[in-house]
Amino acid sequence: MANLAIGTWSATRAESTLAATCLSAGLVLLFAATVDRFETLKGLGLEARTRALKEATSEAAVILADLQAMRSEVAELDGALKQQKIEAIGAISELERKYASIKHDVERAMRAARNAGQL
Question: Which of 39, 42, 8, 38 is nearest to 22 (CA)?
Fold first, then answer.
């Protein structure tokens, strides 16, 4: 606001260079202070949609928070799945040991039956 006042005062005193500089700076600062009220800004070959950008930024923040929450859940599930995999491998190993023991017992019984002449 001070730039606008100085620019107006300089214009009344016929100091055109100072008046033009101060008025231009004042208008630019006034525009910059109220830029959030505009939806579209056009200038110097650029166009910016401020409200759309703010909405997109807010939406991106929500999506990021959701992704971080999902990452935590996936990490928990991954840990649980690893534990289940370890338990399943242990159970399979135990079954393989039992199968080998039973197979050995059956083979021994078959040999004994053959030797006894029962087969």
Answer: 8
Q: Are 20 and 4 in contact (CB under 8 A)?
A: no
**What token pair was written down for 27?**
């208008």
Backbone angles phi, psi at 31, to 5 degrees: -65, -45
Selection from 40, 61, 35 nearest residue 52 by Cα: 40
- The 10s digit of each residue's pLDDT in 95-113 is 999 999 999 999 999 988 8
> What pTM was computed for the model?
0.39
**pLDDT tier for residue 22 given thresholds of 50, 70 and 90:** low
How far is 32 from 17, CA to CA, in rounded Å?
Answer: 22
